[in-house]
Amino acid sequence: MSRRYTSETDVMRHALSLGALGIGHVEPNPPVGAVIVDEELRELGSGYHQHYGGPHAEVYALAAAGESARGGTLFCTLEPCCHFGKTPPCSRAVIAAGIKRVVIAMADPAPHVDGGGIAELKAAGISVEVGLLEPEARQMTAPFVQLMTRQRPWVHAKWAMTLDGKIASRTGHSQWISNSQSRAVVHQLRGRMDAIVVGIGTALADDPQLTARPAGVRVATRVVIDSQARLPLSSQLVQTAADIPVICVTSTAASAERMECLRAAGVEVLQCAPDETGRPLVGEWLTELGQRKMTHVLVEGGGTLIGSLFDAQAIDEVHAFIAPKLLGGAQATTAIQGLGLESVPEAGLRVLETQVLDGDIYVHGRTR
């Protein structure tokens, strides 16, 4: 027996839950879910965009519904596309299937769509309504919208800290502040990112691999913000650059000889203009990553790098792991350095989830 919904809001809520299944798989496309119902809100077919380059949500839903889709109502979390890309236009598939009404959570802000799909549906005599659960849809598609409208990736800042807010002791020791369960969550995060970014201080202190273990659905490019091109040729990042891409972001003051050595070892060197501290301008390297269609970027530290992003108001999402440990010390490192704010803000993070991980507390939220 087919599923029957109690309200149109419930139909769209299910479409959103389906769309969320594609996060990490579909980028730089948006996550989208679709459900087709009859007049009594019985489900005829449903689907979601499962992977980049594959069929869109509407196509899966139409295929599941078959001929029963004719005369039905399509609920879609995002405006159907109207252009030829990796796949044919979804708007034409909806028209050809005989759908009589389309309910859309939000219009697609991408320049190549931007109302075109809605216009095509209306021109074909299909009733179109926009806005049902739009805030929820905007939350789900926020990284895609930012990439399309600002040409910048969605920046996730991650750190592990003690209960007194330290990410390393006064001697620089930091392994391990968080426990194994927390680190497993971090590896899951890495597995759905387009890039993982650290500062040169972290690269020198920890000699990290910056890979997901076990591997996730995506293989992230490793990025080191390194104004003077100091990344050692013997580092794990350089030694594995032939297998997994590494970008060294330097300032224009970096040594030409050092940059050439890195290039010869298989590292891409990206030069950016320096800020007032001599570090590569945040806006420049973020824009470069956005131009490469990187949607999700995970910044893992250290405090100087995260502080520069915070001061630039470039952090979109936070993943903080708080361990029940104390380090103390005025010289111990904090998670967010830089200039910081002059006063305590009235509004805090919009917390999406909190978890207790074998004693550690994981706080996940958005900054705006």
Written account of the structure:
With 368 residues, the chain is of the alpha/beta class. Helix content is 28%, strand content 23%. The chain is built from 11 helices and 16 strands. The protein has helices at 8-20, 57-65, 90-96, 116-123, 134-150, 180-190, 200-206, 236-239, 256-264, 282-291, 303-311; strands at 33-37, 43-48, 73-76, 101-104, 127-130, 154-162, 166-168, 195-199, 221-225, 246-251, 268-272, 296-299, 317-323, 333-334, 350-357, 360-366. The strands form 3 sheets. It has a 9-stranded mixed sheet with strand order 11-10-9-8-12-6-13-16-15, with helices on both faces. Strands 2-1-3-4-5 form a 5-stranded mixed sheet, with helices on both faces. Helix 3 (90-96) runs parallel beside helix 4 (116-123). The longest helix has 17 residues, at 134-150. The protein is elongated, with a radius of gyration of 23 Å. The two termini are 42 Å apart. The relative contact order is 0.12. The model has no long low-confidence stretch (mean pLDDT 95).
Q: What structural class do the secondary elements suggest?
A: alpha/beta
- E-strand count: 16
Q: Determine the fraction of residues in helical runs and give it as a percent range.
A: 25-40%
Largest sheet: 9 strands, mixed
Radius of gyration: 23 Å
Count of helical segments?
11
How confident overall, as mean pLDDT?
A: 95
Strand content: 15-25%
Structure in a nutshell:
The protein has 368 residues and is α/β, with parallel strands linked by helices. Helix content is 28%, strand content 23%.
